């Protein structure tokens, strides 16, 4: 890979479960050390939970018709769903693992700007996507994590994504967490409405998720996925509500996993998604391979 991961002086070899959180609180400033904080949370404290929260963050954006219509027109979900998923994960994870202004980070952001530049994407929609990357990890962390995120961690996540947004040319990014969350909530209230494109992209995404598991568990898996979508989003996709029991059980299981993790030994080495084989790139990849290969929509 082009760059080593972000360097840190955190006590990562400590057996103390709270050593990293204390290090962040006592030694780091979210205004300047946001990349290190995001790296420590994503690579050591909550790698699996962060990944799932970002998966569902992207899922939420497909409940906005203007976004889902563009995605359906590209044909990428229909023809290259797994590749699109892997590419998005590796682009975002790589920036967090290697740094916004690393060779990888600059190439990833340039690639995303190039892909997005092919389509007429409104600034408000780009801003909403950015807001989901800020708030869904925080919300999942609060709901299912083995500890509550600190204010420094929340602020660092906001500044990290704000800096990426600036490099992507996104305009009018709010200056505070409170203002940005207000935008996030208001945008969903105004723009989560049913559309056939929402349903098509939502179904394609569910299919990708379910394809990772044996066929006999997929009906239950579908209900579990629905359990992590709120009623307004389910309606925007045209998905049925899951049973109250399954919804409660899915969330309770994830919450219980967080309680168990609180008493497990801390991770001693980083979990780096860019170094894990994927279905699309089992032998590794280059950042320049990531993203759609088609030169234009529908080609």
TrEMBL record:
GO terms for molecular function: oxidoreductase activity. Residues 76-259 form the ER-bound oxygenase mpaB/mpaB'/Rubber oxygenase catalytic domain. PANTHER family: ER-BOUND OXYGENASE MPAB_MPAB'_RUBBER OXYGENASE CATALYTIC DOMAIN-CONTAINING PROTEIN, PTHR36124. This is DUF2236 domain-containing protein. It comes from Phototrophicus methaneseepsis. The lineage of its organism: Bacteria, Bacillati, Chloroflexota, Candidatus Thermofontia, Phototrophicales.
